[in-house]
């Protein structure tokens, strides 16, 4: 239709979703979740087509490739925890972080680009299920709007827990992507850390722990991607008439 791929027309205003993963090398589940997002977005699924027509997705699937190569758990080749250096990354000590931050700032300064979401994918060694960390804002309305995406994701993914999702401004996390970009971007941008358990999840209404598999992590990624359609339908960017949506998760 004429409205298709409107976000790619020259001079068109772009709504951007920026996703990063694997800033901590040992958190391998984050790569599978990110893979699920990518696989879904480039698929021929009708929801994926609608998302591509209306949004631009920027994805950096591995922020710490040297740490992954070396088998480090948390640090880079230079011994830095990259997720504590977003405020002032060095081009030689934290090159991937520096490059991604520069790209985000360029988009932020471009009046034709709205950077609406930033999601950094991690894995958690003690908590169960998938859940999110968000920021705390003095503006109550902005704080409430920030809760919409994780609430919608909770409806789409049986392994995502909204009760484990929290919003904080812990000083220890000041150098993380979520905290730094949450303070940099304007009040229409929402920044999250998406965490997923290393080992298992509990489906709501049950007490049985279900072990995570590679496929289950990728399924969570697919559900994250699908949730953007629900979010933008609420905000009237996407019209409701659409190809039938499968009822399965």
From TrEMBL:
GO terms for molecular function: metallocarboxypeptidase activity; zinc ion binding. It comes from the Eukaryota. SUPFAM superfamilies: Zn-dependent exopeptidases. The lineage of its organism: Eukaryota, Metazoa, Chordata, Craniata, Vertebrata. Keywords: Carboxypeptidase, Hydrolase, Protease. The keyword Hydrolase applies. The keyword Protease applies. CDD domains: M14_AGBL4_like. Belongs to the peptidase M14 family. Pfam families: Peptidase_M14 (PF00246). The active site is at 195 (proton donor/acceptor). InterPro entries: Cytosolic_carboxypeptidase (IPR050821), Peptidase_M14 (IPR000834). This is CBPC6 carboxypeptidase. One of its GO terms (biological process) is proteolysis. Residues 1-232 form the Peptidase M14 domain. Its cofactor is Zn(2+).
């Amino acid at each position: 239709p004429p409205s298709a791929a409107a976000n790619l027309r020259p001079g068109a205003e772009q709504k951007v979703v920026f996703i990063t993963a694997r800033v901590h090398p040992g958190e391998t589940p984050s790569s599978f979740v990110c893979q699920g997002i990518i696989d879904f977005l480039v698929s021929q699924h009708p929801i994926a087509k609608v998302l591509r027509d209306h949004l631009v997705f920027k994805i950096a699937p591995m922020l710490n490739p040297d740490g992954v190569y070396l088998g480090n758990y948390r640090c880079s080749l230079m011994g830095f925890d990259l997720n504590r250096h977003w405020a002032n990354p060095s081009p030689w000590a934290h090159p991937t972080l520096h490059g991604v931050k520069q790209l985000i700032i360029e988009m932020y300064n471009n009046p034709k680009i709205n950077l609406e979401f930033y999601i950094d994918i991690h894995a958690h060694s003690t908590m169960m299920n998938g859940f999110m960390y968000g920021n705390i804002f003095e503006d109550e309305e902005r704080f409430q709007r920030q809760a919409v995406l994780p609430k919608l994701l909770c409806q789409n993914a049986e392994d995502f827990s909204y009760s484990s999702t929290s919003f904080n401004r812990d000083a220890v996390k000041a150098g993380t992507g979520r905290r730094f970009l949450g303070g940099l971007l304007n009040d229409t941008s929402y920044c999250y850390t998406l965490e997923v358990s290393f080992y298992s999840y509990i489906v709501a209404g049950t007490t049985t722990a279900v072990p995570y598999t590679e496929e289950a992590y990728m399924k969570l990624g697919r559900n994250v991607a699908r949730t953007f359609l629900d979010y933008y339908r609420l905000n009237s960017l996407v019209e409701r008439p659409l190809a039938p949506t499968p009822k399965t998760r």
